[in-house]
């Protein structure tokens, strides 16, 4: 069965347009308040570093999976590379792109929630905003772009369902919307292939009960949207792509990144989580930060199940009711997103999933009250949903939502600025430690003195037996140098495993930077294990240490001449040898 012609649409009267304009204005203000702080805050050195470096690699002719490790689809790199081509390679360009991706997620939630009225749509949008902004700032991660595209694809597919005719044949406009939605779902998969389960579940739930024409258009759109993978397969090679996007993330990486499930109530397991919490302002709360994280995990699972249950109940009560179909489709989409939260239980992964189901929870509350309390007015149901969302954000999970949003907003107005700018040859990266700024700028100046354009740069950890993280931003700061290693992004169990290509890559380098910033990395997973000694042997046999910056924060090495290390340099003695 299909939704009848004339299924509910937002109020388009003059009063309605004014009301929706106010909704947009409030959301724009919500995005704008922390924006200046976000643009000048520290970014994650590896994640933002490779999202700055990788698109520039693409512009230089390098291919993801073939020339450098990239665990996700090529779509985000191609899109960001195109943006860099037009607006220039810079931290600001990358962050504006990241902001656009986050706005896409917020917009998709608001557009999906609009059928329940302005108050509900605004509540959902604000919850989404305070969930998606804090985890990693404006870093233009592929996940955000993929979720934005999939979310907007769901908007289009459900709009097609709303316009469908009762005779089940589907009007031209309806199937056109569904085709567009399928294309957006497919494009989302070019950003993150692991969104395939969410896109499939959400898309199927959105068109379930429509005729064959709608299903064909959805499938055709998905094929068109994912067709860029054919180009990638030709450029990188099928075996290389399968290894880089399936074998590496699923089988090789997982042991070194997973965290205990469920998360503990009394401490934080994630290293980056612990570092981030220390830098945030105090916030009054009954629950400790680890307790909030643990509660968030169970709340997320309960929310996904609630969306599915209430959506299924609403559809069963009235199969022709369009809003019920929307809720069920979002619940199905959310179920497909859930593995992302389970694979690494930290606040970033929980937020990347919660931005859909938890943001849509007010809709489930309104629908549940509609079923249980049919005499209650929509305004009151919306008020109950809004109050519930406020309690959730301000009282249950404030350390991961309201506190971080407040901190970025305070930074926008000049308060609590902790990040300092590392600058070199017109490029900038923000870091949260002043001593790293001084060390990095001195290091970059020295590298310029020792290298020529085209020389090969290797950035790694001070102990190459352990590769939990990388200061990948240094590749972005030195654009005239060529990456010497496939492992720009360094992951435990991959770069340091026996038989990896890292020793061979290291041997080819003209300049090597090893960082001790992450030497104390400690998580309850395989990242604590020591890997191959071969890279350490290569370093000891073939390189000389020619500088140390920031009391050992960064050590600099160059290839050893035939006559041995020159005066003023030393023969390295790597840990483990």
Account of the protein in words:
α6 runs parallel beside α19 and α16 packs antiparallel against α17. The protein has 2 domains: 396 residues, no CATH class; 139 residues, no CATH class. It is an alpha/beta fold and 577 residues long. The strands form 2 sheets. A 5-stranded mixed β-sheet has the order 4-3-5-7-6. β6 and β7 form a beta hairpin.
Q: Keywords for this structure?
A:
two-stranded antiparallel sheet; alpha/beta; 577 residues; 7 strands
Short description:
By secondary structure, this protein is α/β, with parallel strands linked by helices.
- The fraction of residues assigned to DSSP E strands is 5-15%
Sheet with most strands: 5 strands, mixed
Oligomer: single chain
Number of domains: 2
* End-to-end Cα distance: 70 Å
* Structural class category: alpha/beta
Can you tell me the overall shape?
globular
Q: Kindly report the spatial arrangement of strands forming the biggest sheet.
A: 4-3-5-7-6
In total, the number of strands is: 7
What proportion of the residues is helical, as a percent range? 55-70%
Number of helices: 24
What is the averaged pLDDT score?
Answer: 93
Please compute the radius of gyration using only Cα atoms: 25 Å
Low-confidence stretches: 1-6
């Amino acid at each position: 069965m299909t939704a009848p012609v004339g299924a509910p649409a937002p109020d388009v009267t003059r009063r309605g347009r004014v009301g929706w304009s106010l909704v947009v204005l409030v959301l724009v203000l919500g995005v704008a308040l922390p924006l200046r702080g976000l643009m000048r805050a520290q970014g994650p050195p590896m994640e933002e570093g490779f999202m700055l470096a990788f698109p520039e690699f693409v512009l230089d002719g390098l291919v993801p999976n073939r020339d450098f490790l990239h665990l996700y689809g090529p779509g985000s790199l191609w899109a960001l590379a195109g943006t860099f081509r037009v607006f220039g390679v810079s931290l600001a360009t990358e962050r504006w792109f990241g902001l656009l991706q986050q706005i896409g997620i917020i917009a998709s939630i608001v557009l999906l929630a609009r059928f329940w009225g302005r108050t509900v749509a605004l509540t959902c949008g604000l919850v989404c905003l305070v969930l998606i902004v804090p985890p990693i700032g404006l870093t233009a991660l592929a996940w955000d772009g993929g979720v934005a595209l999939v979310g907007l694809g769901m908007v289009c597919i459900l709009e097609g369902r709303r316009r469908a005719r009762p005779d089940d044949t589907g009007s031209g406009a309806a199937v056109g919307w569904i085709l567009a939605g399928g294309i957006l779902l497919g494009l989302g998969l070019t950003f993150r292939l692991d969104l395939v389960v969410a896109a499939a579940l959400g898309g199927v739930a959105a068109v379930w009960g429509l005729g064959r024409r709608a299903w064909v258009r959805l499938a055709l759109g998905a094929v068109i949207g994912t067709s860029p993978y054919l180009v990638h397969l030709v450029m990188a090679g099928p075996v290389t792509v399968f290894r880089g996007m399936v074998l590496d993330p699923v089988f090789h990486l997982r042991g070194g990144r997973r965290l205990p499930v469920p998360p503990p109530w009394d401490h934080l397991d994630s290293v980056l989580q612990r570092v981030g919490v220390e830098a945030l302002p105090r916030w009054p709360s009954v629950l400790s930060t680890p307790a909030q994280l643990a509660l968030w995990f169970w709340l997320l699972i309960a929310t996904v199940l609630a969306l599915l249950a209430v959506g299924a109940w609403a559809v069963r009560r009235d199969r022709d009711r369009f809003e019920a179909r929307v809720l069920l489709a979002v619940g199905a989409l959310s179920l497909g997103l859930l593995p992302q939260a389970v694979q690494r239980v930290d606040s970033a992964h929980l937020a990347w999933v919660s931005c859909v189901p938890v943001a849509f929870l007010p809709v489930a509350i309104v629908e549940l009250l509609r079923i249980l309390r049919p005499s209650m007015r929509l305004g009151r149901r919306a008020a109950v949903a809004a109050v519930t969302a406020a309690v959730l954000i301000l009282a249950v999970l404030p350390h991961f939502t309201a506190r971080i949003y407040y901190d970025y907003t305070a930074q926008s107005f000049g308060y609590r600025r902790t990040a300092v700018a590392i600058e070199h040859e017109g490029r900038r990266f923000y870091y949260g430690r002043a001593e790293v700024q001084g060390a990095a700028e001195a290091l970059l100046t020295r590298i310029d003195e020792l290298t020529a354009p085209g020389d090969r740069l290797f950035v790694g950890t001070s102990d190459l037996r352990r590769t939990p993280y990388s200061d990948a931003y240094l590749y972005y700061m030195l654009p005239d140098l060529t990456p010497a290693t496939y492992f720009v992004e360094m992951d435990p169990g991959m770069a340091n495993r026996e038989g990896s290509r890292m020793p061979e890559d290291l041997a080819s380098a003209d300049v090597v930077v090893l960082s001790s910033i992450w030497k104390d990395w400690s998580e309850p997973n395989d990242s604590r294990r020591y890997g191959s000694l071969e890279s350490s042997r290569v370093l000891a046999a073939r390189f000389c240490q020619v500088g140390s910056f920031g009391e050992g924060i960064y050590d600099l090495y160059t290839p050893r001449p035939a006559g041995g290390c020159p005066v003023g340099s030393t023969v390295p003695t790597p840990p483990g040898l």
